[in-house]
Every structure is written in C-alpha cells, then in structure tokens.
Amino acid sequence: MGMTITEKIMAKASGKVAVTPGENVWLNVDILMTHDVCGPPTIGIWKKEFGDQAKIWDNNKVVIFPDHYIFTKNEHANRNVAILRDFAKEHDLPNYYDVGSYRYKGVCHVALAEEGYNMPGTVLFGTDSHTCSSGAFGMFSTGVGNTDAAFILGTGKIWEKVPESMKFTFDGQLPVYLTAKDLILTILGDITTDGATYRAMEFTGDAVFALNMDERMTLTNMAIEAGGMNGIIAADEVTEAYVKERSGKPYEIFNSDGDAVYFAEYRYNVNELDPVVAKPHSPDNRDTVRNVQGTKLTKCYLGSCTGGKLSDFEYAARILDGRKVSVKTHIVPATTYVNEQLDKRTYNGKTLRTIFQDAGCIIEQSSCAACLGGPIDTVGRAVDRDVIISSTNRNFPGRMGSKQADVYLASPLTVAASAVKGVITDPREFIS
Amino acid sequence: MNTIIQGKAYVLGDNIDTDQIIPAEHLVYSLSDPEESKKYGHFALSSVPTEQAGLPNGRIPFINGENTESEYNIIIGGSNFGCGSSREHAPFALMKAGVKAIVAESYARIFYRNSVDGGFVVPFESVNGLKKSIKTGDEVEIDLAKNQITNKTEGATYKLKPLGDVMPIIEQGGLFEYARKTNMLG
C-alpha cells in the first residue's frame, strides 16, 4: 500500500520502513523552535525534570525567536525575554535571535523559513500551534506544549500518532482578486474548526504549485484552524530554489504515492471561488465578502505569521497605491526582513513603504503584536466593541484583545479594499 | 491514581478555545512560582462569553471575585474542546483553578496532549454529548474503572470512552513520570 508524504517522513524519522495512520511512533526531531511565551515554562520543566546537570540534546537544533510580547512595558513579559536571553547565553545557543540586537527577526514561523530552518523531508516541532506553517516546505511540522517541548529539549525525541491524511486539490489559475487566504478560509468553511483534528492536511493542484512560498505558508499555517496536526505541500522547484538560497543543508523530497490512502479528498476549481471572510467568532464562520460588504469598521490590521509576509504586503499595495485609508490601518511586517523589504520592493515605481505611508497606514515594528491581543499596551489591540478586519488567522472571542470586539478574517486584498472604504469591501471593486 | 473523581460540574459549549480558557494577555506569569502561578487559576475561563459561562443558563462565574480556585472541579464540554493555540497554560490554568477532569465530546490535539503529558487534568471523552444532561452545579462522579459518569443530582449515568493509549501516561501522572517508569530516560 502506498504512503502519503506525511507518512513517509514519519517513517523515516522513526526509523521504520512504513507507518500506518493511528500508530504511535517516536520521532527523531530535527529542529525544536520556541518563543517568549512558551520558552520560559519549557525551560522551567526541562530544568526540573532533567536536574541541574541537564544537557540539551543538540544545541544546533534549538531555535529561539522572541516574538510575541516584545514592544511592551509589561514587566512580566520582559522578564520572559530575559529568561530566554540568559538561557541562550548559559548554553551557548547559536540560534537565538535576541530582541534589541541586529539578530532580532520577529514572528517565528516566517523567520524559520527566512533563516533556512525549513528543509524538505525533516521534522520540526515548536511550542506554537501555527508551527504547522513550515509544512509548506514538504516537511512534517506541528505544535506542542511545554512538557512535550521540554522532553524534546532533553532527548531529541517525542511520541506522535501517525495522522490520517486529507487531500485538498485546487485546480486552475488563481484569479487576481483571490489569494491563498481565500482558499484556506474556503476549506475551513467546508470542514469546520475540527474537520481535520488529528489529521494531516495535504494541499496540491496547479493553483497551489503556482503559489510562492509565502502564499503556500498561508495555507499550511491555518491547518491548525481546522484542528489539523500538520499541513503539508510537496516540495518542488519553487521550494528548492527558496531553500538553496538560504541553507546549504541536505534535504530529501517526498511525494505521496499514487495509491496512498486518504481519509477524504476535496477538489476545488479556483475560478469558481469568491473572496471570503471568516465572520466573528470563528475561523470556520465563512461567508462571501459580498454578503457582508458594507459592515462598518473601526480598525484594519495587516500582520502576523499568516498575513504579515512580504507577499501579503505586495497584495495590499496593489489596492492602497494612490488611495487613502479611511479607517485606522495597522501594517505589522512579520519579520525585520519583511520590514526592510518594504523599502526595496516596488509597485508602480514606488516602494511599498511609500505606498503605505501615503495611504495613511501606521507601520509598526515586527512582532506578533495584536494578532493574539497581548499585553494592554500592544499596538493595534482590539478594545471595547472594535469591529476589525484582519489578515490574521484566528478570531475566537477575545483573541485580539477585547472579547466584545468583532473580528473578521480576510485576505490582504480584502483588508486593503476595506481599509480604503472604511467598510468591508470586495477587492473586485478595485481589481478585476 | 484515584479511580473515582467527583465534584461539581461546570458546563460549557462547543469550541472552547484556549483564549477563552486563559486569555493571551495573562500568559506572562511564571508557571513554576507557587504564588505567582495562582494567577492562572484566577483568570481560568475568564474570556468565555458571559451568556455561555455555566450552561444551560450562563452568567455563572467560574471564579468568584478575587479567588484563585473555583467551586467547580469537573468541566463538561462540547466538541473540539481546547482548540486554538498550543499554550500549555490552558490545562495548567484549569488545574490551578482546582479542575480534576474534563468530560467533552472531543478535543483539539494539542490541548489533549498537554493535559495528558503535563499531568494537569484528565481529558475524558463522552460517548454522547452531555451538555443537555448535566447542568452547572450538578454533583457528578466519574468512575474510571467503569468508564462512566454519573449525574448524582439527577440520578443518571452516561458512558465514557476508554482512555486507551494514553492511560499509562495518565496513570503515571505525566510524560516524564511515564518515561522514567519505562526506563526511557536512562
């Protein structure tokens, strides 16, 4: 019987010839990633469980990005960054990206890709649910809690149940008014927030392989919003070109066999899809933008691991160029690299930064910022009865701050169009 | 471990995500400091929308005033309990509030793992939904050996799914205890 990509990677990482969904296996981990929210408690558990003489299984395989609560006066949040800093120093960790240093990056999932940690065929665990983003590189990646991460930190191994796979095929050529965000929100509306629980979500088809790596990560990033263990896209020449530019490390490309078994298969023709939103208060509460257009907004937000990548801002610039926003609009580049590129990438002969500044957007420093609310002094945080349209990935009650706020999730094109009008607006009003 | 878990039920709906269980702004406190970590108990379930807090009627605070522990120690939930972020602070916060067990229709993967591997709360799955059979404040009793939960207030008993593969980890009190017991940590 054939195997899926996910099954093949799990077999390799557990030293087996083949694995079957439902089977528990112990995986050898290639990279463990953590950040300022879950890093300190992970370190705490590791020290408690392995004792004073505790050793990290491999210093080169631990990657730490402070990114969640960075530009805040909250003393407890700042203490957590200090704990990471001390830990990195104490253990001489080469892959620590400190706040306030030239090494600072920002949002971990995007930085993992930029810094060359995402390699086809490998296994990456992280203390963040959106760790599934890295699956865009044809690798197995998933989120775990502090105890599991502490176990990996000491042993380099962790147990996992081999997931059944679900296949999502997108045929056709993506129309200019759609982005990967519309595709994943469409899936979420169809299968709901627990439609892929404990399963792998494999994305394939011409429309997927035509996407750049940023956009592919938007698909895999939100596998967790359907409960998925991991999202995965087979590596191709686009993946290889991206990886080779950033890392000289070896990798192995896996493809699903023709006779691999799937729990379910979904097929979409992208030409038949509309721009969509997820209405309050769940990522699966899908509707077309047209059905909710005219909804009055108090704030627009472009940022996060799913909506603050360079390609997200390139989409937004197409609409914001030469126009003004009519509602407060926050631009939060996911990483310092994305922030630098705002000065280098151009549209219609102007840099993205000029376009956003001229439009009246507020450009913030790189971090997770208001995607998950954060301390009360976090920029862009939802307050009171804010009505926000956001390119982020989650809109459960209180996710962006105030639990009275209404958050709509949408593509960067839809957010930009809505920012111009001050009400939810279909991007086809500006581009077609 | 005890084969009987009893206490007062607190009933919640479907898709109780980790932000409702412990809002992100509170994730800054130490989990290892005994005094500071009580804040997690205090803020447990503080972002559940008021009308859905303590079903069927809602508007029942899980934590009263400045308390750090709840009078309710068994959570009854719907489907996809614990969806959202990977924060282990979520089952930790419920444990700090005094919760011993959750009985839900289904769980999100990371929350389930965290509950088991961290040894915080026991995540049971009910065979049928219990949101309509148990009210907030009912006295309930879980019998591990029989895989059942009894609503002592109403005098009715309902089936639970066996804990299965994770039972050995739960019995040992968490992943590290299990790994030591099975000589995995040398």
What would CATH call the class of the largest domain in chain A?
Alpha Beta
**What fraction, in percent, of the residue positions of chain A are helical?**
25-40%
Q: What about the largest sheet of chain A?
A: 7 strands, mixed
Q: Oligomeric state of the chains?
A: heterodimer
Can you identify the CATH superfamily of the largest domain in chain A? Aconitase, domain 3
The overall average pLDDT of chain B, rounded, is 96
- Element pattern of chain B in H and E: EHHEHEHEEEEHH
Integer average pLDDT of chain A: 97
The percent range for strand residues of chain A is: 15-25%
Structural features:
heterodimer; A: 432 residues; alpha/beta; Aconitase, domain 3; 2 domains; B: 186 residues; Aconitase, domain 4; 7-stranded mixed β-sheet; 17% strand
Protein architecture, described:
The complex is a heterodimer of chains A (432) and B (186). With 432 residues, chain A is an alpha/beta fold. Chain A contains 15 helices and 19 strands. In chain A, the strands form five sheets. Chain A has a seven-stranded mixed sheet, sandwiched between helices. A four-stranded parallel sheet of chain A has the order 3-2-4-5, covered by helices on one side. In chain A, helix 2 links the parallel strand 2 (31-34) and strand 3. In chain A, helix 12 packs parallel to helix 15 (412-421). The relative contact order of chain A is 0.14. Chain B is α/β, with parallel strands linked by helices. Chain B has one domain: Aconitase, domain 4, CATH 3.20.19. In chain B, 22% of the residues lie in helices and 17% in strands. Chain B contains six helices and seven strands. Chain B has helices at 18-21, 38-43, 89-96, 109-117, 167-172, 175-181, and strands at 4-11, 74-76, 101-104, 122-125, 139-143, 148-151, 156-159. Chain B has a seven-stranded mixed sheet with strand order 4-3-2-1-5-6-7. The model of chain B has no long low-confidence stretch (mean pLDDT 96). The interface between A and B is large, with 51 and 41 residues.
